Amino acid sequence: MLANTGLKSRAAFDQLYLATAPKLFGVLIRILKDPIRAEDALQDVFVKIWQKAGSYRAGEQPAMGWLITVARHHAIDVIRADRRVHDDLDDHHGLAAGGPDPEQAAIAAGERGRLQHCLEELDPQKAEAVVAAYVEGYSYQELAERFGIPLNTMRTWLRRSLASLRKCLDDG
Amino acid sequence: MARTAKPGKQDIDRMAAEYAIGVLEPADRLRFEALMAQDPQARAALVQWQNRLSGLDDAYVPVAPPAVVKKRLDERLFAATSTPASDAAGGWNALALWRAFGSLATVAAVVLAIFAGHLSGEMKRGGDALTAARQEADQARNDLAAYRTDLETYENELAQRADRLAGLEAELASMRDQLGTANGDLAGLRQVLASREAELADARAELTAALERAGPVLVVSLQSRDSDYRFLAVHEQGSGEVRLTRVAGDLAADRDFELWLVEPQKEAVSLGVIPAGKTAVALSPDHVRVLEGGGLLAVSIEQKGGSPTGVAQGPVVAVGVPETL
Questions:
Q1: What 3-state class would DSSP assign to B252?
Q2: Domains of chain A listed by start with CATH number
Q3: Between the CA atoms of B78, B79, B84 and B86, what dihedral angle is there, to the nearest 10 degrees?
Q4: Cβ contacts of A135 on chain B, cutoff 8 Å
Q5: Is it the case that residue B63 has pLDDT exceeding 50?
Q6: Is the pLDDT of residue B223 over 60?
Q7: Would an 8 Å CB–CB cutoff place A130 in contact with chain B?
Q8: Measuring CA to CA, which residue among B74, B103, B117, B51 is closest to residue A19?
Q9: How far is residue B166's CA from residue A48's CA, in Å, rounded to a whole number?
Q10: B243, B265, B271, B291 from B286: Cα distances, Å
């Protein structure tokens, strides 16, 4: 019976991989900036998915969102551990595997109308910082460097922006 | 700056947001992870932020991974011996995850269908078996109830038949009694008949004897349309008696038969009480003269000892006219 279970869920797992691996691969490439490292990371991510699958609760969070969370957090762990060398802003665009820049990301987020609306309520630079932090997985340090502002200011930017976003999203 | 106090709700929310984005610095990250381990509200705050920000996921462009990645993944997860640990991790508990992809991609819809098909097939088969078993149990219960009802019916019928049988036996006993009585009656009647036949035989004998004698014989057959009494009287001319025999009719215990000689246009004369059975009644010469002259003989039923008045008190039950043989 257990072997049967394994077989069935393996088939399901295969199909899950088929359905979602490209998107997650895209996430990993975007954050890791390196397709080769992204391949290893993809393997690790799907192992984590297999192991944590039982803890997923459908009611709390959409499944794709959950999977991307796993991928993003894994990628961020990797780059934080790397203590990645500061890269040039331009280099990132080149290695982004054709991915849009933060502004594009905000526009892409337009598909989630409410988020777009609430991001637009923010100061454009602050919105950009929020989006970059999320999509690229930048640390406070990296963000501060990118936007040329002190670390504490970036912390304040982000925290206040997140607070505003929350208010906008929850109430607005 | 070390925080010793438990963070307030706003702090938790802030940390959850930063964690969700990924900017939470290592020390705070560890603190928040520790907090989530104990506090469901911290976990819930994180999930809420992940949901809020998920719109930004649209920025990620899908890229097809090399096939080798899956190959290595399969080797890692599903070793040749297929250890239960790795199977169980992704197994049935992951149903929610496998199911979720039904709404995301056509291919994923196939996942759902395949998995659900396997799952529901088994469940359906199990469910069918359970339903069948339940139906059988219900059927057995119904059969049992029906048998019980039948049994009750049979028992009731049996009780009724037992009652009827008892009734029939009582009837039979009563009929036996009646038969016994009837037999008794019959025996009595036979006795009466026998005695009557005896008396009749006597009368015949008398008659025959009288016929063999030389002298003329007067025979009187006494009877009446209104009664069953019959007597036979025989008088040999020249004898001073008449011999009388009762042929038919019963006499009540407190009564006596009385014989009367009836001369036309004259009052009847009592010849006395007739004893039971055959009897010879003495006649005076006057009586003989009357009788031989065509006088009637009659019998009445009187009180014991005969009529006290010399005149018939009771009913005359038989009358006869002498006839010469």
A1: coil
A2: 2-90 (1.10.1740.10), 102-171 (1.10.10.10)
A3: -50
A4: 56, 59-60
A5: yes
A6: yes
A7: yes
A8: B103
A9: 89
A10: 17, 16, 12, 9
Verify whether the Cβ–Cβ distance B21 to A158 is below 8 Å.
Answer: yes
A8 touches chain B (CB under 8 A): yes
Question: What span, in angstroms and rounded, lies between the C-alpha atoms of A146 and A127?
Answer: 14
* Beta partners for residue B256, in sequence order: B302
Residues B73, B69: Cα–Cα separation, whole Å: 6
Q: Does B88 touch chain A (CB under 8 A)?
A: yes
Per the listing, tokens 């505003």 go with: A164
The predicted-structure confidence for B144-159, as pLDDT tens digits, reads as follows 787 788 888 888 888 8
Judging contacts by C-beta atoms under 8 Å, the chain B residues touching residue A97 are 61, 63
Residue B171 backbone dihedrals phi, psi, to 5 degrees: -60, -45
Tell me what pLDDT residue A100 has. Answer: 42
- Residue B22 with chain A: CB contacts under 8 Å: 72-73, 76, 133-134, 137, 139
A-facing residues of B in 195-214 (CB < 8 A) are none
Q: Work out whether the CA dihedral B63, B66, B67, B73 comes out positive or negative.
A: negative
Asked if the Cβ–Cβ distance from B93 to A68 is below 8 Å, we say no
User: Residues B187-192: what's their mean pLDDT?
Assistant: 89
Q: Which residues of A touch B88 (CB under 8 A)?
A: 2, 5-6
Closest by alpha carbon to B308, among B275, B270, B279, B276?
B270
Residue B113 forms contact with A (CB below 8 Å): no
Which residue(s) pair with B223 in the sheet? Answer: B319
Q: Do B25 and A19 touch (CB under 8 A)?
A: no
Find all residues with CB under 8 Å of B236, minimum gap 6, and list them. B210, B213, B215, B216, B217, B218
**DSSP characters for B270-287?**
EEEEEPSSSEEEE--HHH
User: With contact defined as beta carbons under 8 Å apart, do B22 and A73 qualify?
Assistant: yes
Number of H helices and number of E strands within chain A? 9, 0
Q: What average pLDDT does range A53-63 have in this prediction?
A: 82
Contact A42, A28 (CB under 8 A): yes
Q: Tokens for B261, please give them.
A: 């000689």
Question: Is B264:B276 a contact under the CB 8 Å cutoff?
Answer: no
Contact A47 B76 (CB under 8 A): yes
Asked if A22's CB is within 8 angstroms of B65's CB, the reply is yes
* Amino acid in position B83: T
Do strands B255-262 and B322-324 pair parallel, antiparallel, or not at all (unpaired)? unpaired
Whether this model's ipTM surpasses 0.95 comes out as no
Question: Which chain A residue is nearest to residue B113, measuring alpha carbons?
Answer: A12
Strand partners, B319: B223, B298
Q: Which of A160, A147, A146, A62 is nearest to A112 (CA)?
A: A62
